[in-house]
Amino acid sequence: MRQVVLRDALRDVAAVGPGMGVLGASFGLLVVGSGLDWWWAPVFSVVVFAGSLEFLLVALAVAGTPLAAIAVTTLLVNGRHAFYGLSFPLHRIRSRAGRVYGVLALTDEAYALYTARPAASLSGPRILTGQALMQACWVGGGTVGALAGSGFGLHVPALEFVFTALFVVLATEATVAGREATGPLLAVACALVAQLVAPGEMLLVAMGLFLAVLLVRHRFSASREAAHA
Amino acid sequence: MPSTGSVGTGYLVAVVAVAAAITIALRAAPFAMTATLRSSALVADLGRRLPAGIMIILVVHLLRDVPLDSAPAGLRELVPVAVTVAVHLWRRNALLSMAAGTVSYAVALALVPG
Hints:
The structure holds two protein chains of two kinds.
Chain A: H1 2-13, H2 17-33, H3 40-47, H4 51-62, H5 67-77, H6 81-84, H7 96-104, H8 108-115, H9 124-151, H10 160-178, H11 182-197, H12 202-228
Chain B: H1 9-32, H2 35-38, H3 41-62, H4 71-91, H5 94-111
Helix pairs in contact in B: 4-5
């Protein structure tokens, strides 16, 4: 039974695990390259465990960003995670401790992996083992990268781009999934306005502005639907 | 290595704690929501539209220092971004797209040193 669970979980994770390890390693290199001690890489990855946000956190922390701004950025960047629970098959996990870990480790990858197949075919242990394997890949990759960076003084300038490329991929993915151009264009507009108006607090202003635009847009479409009805 | 550069350990601990607490709260939020709220139109709308916009804003933020008035220096960042998008639309493999983008950035760095 246990072997079957492990085998299934390994098969689930095979698609994303190696990628998480490689990305984790570049996160580790970034941590050390930013002047932090190597062990911050596993600390971030065990405690926060949110890949793309961790890259951003290191950059913001090195710049000495105020905690309030870190909090709002986390809220908005990881805001998408608040929607994952709506379809993640948590009901397949029986034990209380298991459910807690299932929620703590509800990353982009876990969501993508375990909402893509019928919930009835998934056992709780299989989901949890998969989530733990993914975290192991991410933490392991980060630790190896950070140790390599501090031990061998490994410094590859081009690796800075991994961070940008990650967000470019996430943006492309989300834009394609959204099937509309208005939202993305409004986001670009918000970003440019924020950059002009408040270059020092660009991220916060742009995200706040975009959220406001979405709320207005929702109000507007809701009242238009009501008028049609 | 006692130093963490110019950043204090206490501050970094606070950064990790704040980010972790908010991330956990976000991941747990839908399970704490009532059924009515879970199926509300606003939640569905935000769930559909927020992610793409936030990611796009982050990309613009990351590229905000790119000098748009100087062709070689500006292209050094923008071409690898375009390569990443193109490869991603083509193969839909995140790791491959990031690798292609990073390799093209390495080439661009060699051609137009920073």
